[in-house]
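Translate sequence into structure tokens.
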Amino acid sequence: MRRTLLLIPHEIASLPVFGFGWLLIGLLIGLGVRILVAKKRQELSFGQAAKSVIAGEGMMWAIAAAVIMFVLPWVELKNVDGDPVGLAIRGYGMMLLAGVGSAVYLAAFRAKRRGIDPDLIYAMAPWAFIGGIAGARLFYVVQYRDQFFSGSIVESIGNVLRFTEGGLVVYGSFIGGGLAVAYYLYRHRLPVLTFGDVIVPCMFLGVFFGRMGCLMNGCCYGGRCEAGPMAVQFPPEAKVYGDQIASGELLGFKYDAETRMIVEVRPDSLADQAGISVGSRLDELGPDYSTLDQAPRNLPVEDVQSGVYVTVDGRRTRWTPSQLPARALPVRAAQIISSGSSLVLCLALSALSFFRLRTGSVMFIGFAAYAILRFVLEWVRVDEAGQFGTSLSISQWVSVFVMAGSVAGLLWLYYSKERPAIPDAEVAV
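Result follows.
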């Protein structure tokens, strides 16, 4: 896990990097250079060149300045005192960009093999990206809405917009991106099934990189397991570490959620060493923030580990961060399983393109295969609860509908009179 790849400091040489600082100065220098270039190319005076640049590009420069002055300072990480310490470049965000870039490039390559102008792929890519991000984030926000709308309106908006830190749902991206691409294809009168066969395999290459981002972010983890090749142990800043603290498992005990009675204590664990025994009653369990005052002020608060306290049978026990385990207990590497299976699915669907199949078959087979993979993967993961009074997670329910729709689509193709598509092997590059 490496949630933050780089932390750009809040200030350099006592001058802020963001807001009214170094980055804004750099933007103004860039604007000056752009005006000089226009002056030289168009043989204008400096004032005329400035008017020309501002008239044609003024909105772009104004938006960039607004982002630097107001948006970037707003998303800077804070220390325990609430002071800004810098802007984090997230591993999840970088993997997200890698996934988008690789998927678009592969789609352009596949389009060229089908005799389709690759520029059409590049033109619809922004639609797919914006629609995919919006759909993925909206799906997650609706699913976990209690985590986003508990504070003020400004805080809630900020929580919703921090999608580079995680919190994107693959199915949401498929729905949002699919609708955006469908609108683009309809608007330009382009064949949906043909482009679906081109694009769908590439989506799973994006999922491959996205799930590696989940691994770096410490989210979308699997259930408890014994240490082994397919097990991972996350550091304290990961969500699973906090979940295992809250359940008592990382401290060495388990309790009944209804009666609050201790039902199991692991030998030689922190709980066992503290004298906690089976049959005792858990009164309280929570974070101990008394050690936060000792945290370095150049460290983001999200990287500062708090202590833990428990009250059992009226007796309180505290553990400092240094006394707590350095890693969470092993969990199944659901991210690696999902990433690897998505890459295999991408390769398998790409191979299918070399066979004479009906147009649209690759698209529907891809959706059906992912529905099966995701349904099974949800049994490995434990971070989503059952929905609608069942043990099935929301993603499993969506998988059921996707599978049904994909089968219906394949049956429609099979019984239609459309001719098979031309295999990629027979198309000149």
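Note: The chain has three domains: 4-89, 91-222+332-426, 239-329.
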